[in-house]
Specification:
Layout lengths: L4 E5 L9 H15 L3 E6 L3 H10 L4 E4 L5 H11 L4 E5 L14 E5 L11 E4 L4 H4 L9 E3 L8 H4 L13 E6 L8 H10 L4 E6 L5 H8 L6 E4 L5 H6 L3 E5 L2 H9 L3 E4 L6 H10 L3 E4 L6 H13 L1 H14 L4 H15 L13 E4 L5 H8 L2 H5 L9 H13 L3 E8 L2 E10 L4 E8 L9 H11 L6 E8 L3 H9 L3 E4 L6 E8 L14
Parallel strand pairs: 1-2, 1-4, 2-3, 4-5, 5-6, 6-7, 8-9, 8-11, 9-10, 11-12, 12-13, 17-18
Antiparallel strand pairs: 14-15, 15-16, 16-17, 18-20, 19-20
Length: 512
């Protein structure tokens, strides 16, 4: 018997593209590997159905009535006792569709596809910078860490060929949507470059026009209608020219060098993020007036092995491929907690202040307490000189924030924030031995979070040993969702986003 049941809604065909379906299949693949029963329901063209049959044999696809998707989804929820409904669609007829009895997660791209949900998911690079919360209680998985990559693509570790004199093999695949007809412009421009061998994937109905535009050069291009093994084909190339949609993250995770073009409005944010981070080579946005010049520069990019390798490695670094794991792990945790219906209890109000050197004595006693050491990475007692030197370093370190949590002026806990990246901070919490068992952990963590204020979104992290049931319970209750599974030492990582609110000071200004 399946552990849980999920119903995933998306639409896909050659004209609108396969991106939503590929994300749905990534989640279905991950959930099924954990024993879930997963159905995917939507409107699917014949090629989409064939694609699923070839890549994921046995995966259920349910065709919905185009005019009544809400009715059909509601019927499926009732008939199949669905635990999780996941929606990945821009279909405006589903706006406001939020069945309260079923845990609902929603995949969006910025404002495209945004709707009420128990869990909001935006798996795009820099999505946290564009996310607009509907309220303080929004539970969201955001950014590059939630990009969903299928296993066949994650298995690829592309190697950049060092031989500069070799003919460059380039794949052009702009998806099902090309409203500005940029594919012929790109193909014609690439054919002007020296030592380039081209393969193009495009819809059958646009191929005659493409061949006419290429004229005698059409014979130099391998034109395909579709491939069931895009990972293998892309890996065989030196670079891929792709639209800035779902596929760009696949190629980035595999380390395949890219030329990137935006072909629709919803792709503009992703295109700009790639350009800002240095992933791939930017080939332009509508109306593409400078495509010829950009393609000339792209030729230099293809000939520069160091630049190709640097861009490819950056893509692998930013897209770690665990997005589907994080989403399904969040589903499981929220189901276990009854998150879509449980009442949120307010934590005890405590105050946070910055630690001072004069706090050294009681912090020393807390640190060497046997229970504290038992759940710490470093379990050996510390000496007073080492402790004093450590506190001096922490107080002076701009990348650390050690906070004393007080109740009516009496220290009862500490929360320490260690910077782990430009926008990420990791929490460490210690409860005073005399305050344990009073349920103040939640209030202490809340006070620490309130103190850590930023004008930008901040990712909060927590590393917890699997045996530390108190901390596990604390961070689960504070909506820190699974981020990394337990390592060889039994430590796992949790995460949540703290989004900026109006009227707050910049990080570090608060001393209350």
């Amino acid at each position: 018997m399946a552990a849980h049941t999920a119903l995933i809604h998306c639409n896909a065909d050659l004209e609108r593209g396969m991106g939503h379906l590929m994300r749905a299949l990534c989640l279905a693949e991950e959930a099924s590997s954990r024993g879930w029963s997963v159905d995917i329901a939507g409107r699917f063209g014949d090629r989409a159905v064939e694609h699923v049959d070839e890549l994921f044999p046995g995966q259920s696809l349910i065709q919905l009535d185009a005019s009544e998707p809400r009715r059909d989804l509601q019927r499926l929820l009732s008939e199949r006792s669905v635990d999780v409904l996941h929606i990945d669609s821009y279909d405006t007829t589903l706006d406001g569709f939020f069945p309260g009895a079923t845990l609902t997660s929603n995949m969006q791209d910025g404002q495209f596809g945004r709707r009420p949900a128990d869990l909001h998911v935006d798996g795009n690079l820099d999505a946290e910078l564009r996310y607009v919360p509907s309220g303080q209680a929004d539970l969201a998985l955001l950014g590059a860490s939630v990009v969903q990559i299928r296993r066949t693509m994650r298995a690829i570790s592309h190697r950049v060929r060092p031989e500069a004199e070799l003919r460059k093999r380039v794949l052009v695949v702009l998806g099902g949507t090309d409203p500005f007809d940029v594919t012929p412009q790109i193909v014609e421009g690439l054919l002007q470059l020296p030592n380039v061998s081209l393969t193009v994937i495009c819809r059958p109905e646009v191929q005659p026009a493409l061949r006419r535009s290429l004229g005698d050069s059409a014979g130099r291009v391998n034109i395909l209608s579709f491939t069931s093994d895009l990972p293998r084909l892309a890996d065989s190339m030196d670079a891929v020219v792709t639209a800035a949609g779902t596929s760009v993250w696949d190629f980035a995770a595999a380390g395949i060098p890219m030329g990137i073009v935006a072909v629709t409005e919803n792709q503009l944010p992703g295109y700009r993020s790639c350009e800002a981070h240095g992933i791939g080579f930017p080939l332009g946005t509508p109306p593409y007036g400078d495509i010829p010049n950009r393609l000339e520069a792209f030729a230099d990019f293809l000939d520069d092995t160091a630049r190709l390798s640097e861009s490819a490695e950056l893509g692998r670094t930013l897209i770690d491929g665990r997005g589907a794991w994080r989403v399904v792990s969040a589903w499981e945790e929220l189901l276990a907690a009854g998150a879509h219906s449980a009442r949120v209890e307010e934590p005890v109000k405590l105050a946070a202040r910055v630690a001072k050197l004069s706090d050294a004595e009681f912090l020393f006693d807390w640190r060497n307490d046997p229970v504290t050491r038992q759940v710490s990475r470093s379990q050996e007692p510390v000496t007073w000189p080492d402790h004093r030197a450590w506190l001096e370093r922490v107080v002076a370190d701009e990348n650390r924030r050690l906070l004393i949590i007080e109740e009516a002026g009496t220290p009862v806990a500490t929360v320490r924030w260690d910077r782990r990246g430009v926008t990420s901070w990791e929490a460490s919490i210690t409860i005073a031995p005399t305050s344990r068992g009073r349920g103040i952990g939640k209030g202490a963590l809340a006070a620490g979070e309130d103190w850590l204020v930023s004008a930008e979104p901040v990712q909060l992290l927590a590393t917890i040993h699997s045996s530390n049931t108190a901390s596990q319970r604390l961070f689960r209750g504070a909506k820190y969702l699974p981020y990394l599974p337990a390592d060889k030492d039994g430590f796992e990582m949790r995460s949540k986003w703290k989004l900026p609110t109006e009227g707050h000071a910049a990080l570090g200004d608060s001393t209350s």
